[in-house]
Amino acid sequence: MKYPLDCENAFNDTYLFWLVRFIRNKITSLSNRHVKDKDRLALILQKLSKNLYSLEALKPLIKEIRNIGINSIHVYFIPLEKLSLFLNTYGASSMREIDEELLSDFLASETANLSDATKKNYRIALISFFGFIDKQNADETGNAFRYGIELKNWGGLGGKSGTKLPSFMNQEEAQRFIEGIDAYPFDVKSAARNRLIIKVILYTGIRVSEALHILIKDFVKDGNAYVIQVRGKGNKPRVVMIKETIIQEDLRLWLASKTCDNGLLFCNHKGKVLTQAYVSRLVEKILLHVGIRKNKNGAHMLRHTFATLLYQKSKDLILVQESLGHADINTSRIYTHFDKDRLTKTTDIF
Question: What is the pTM of this model?
Answer without folding.
Answer: 0.58
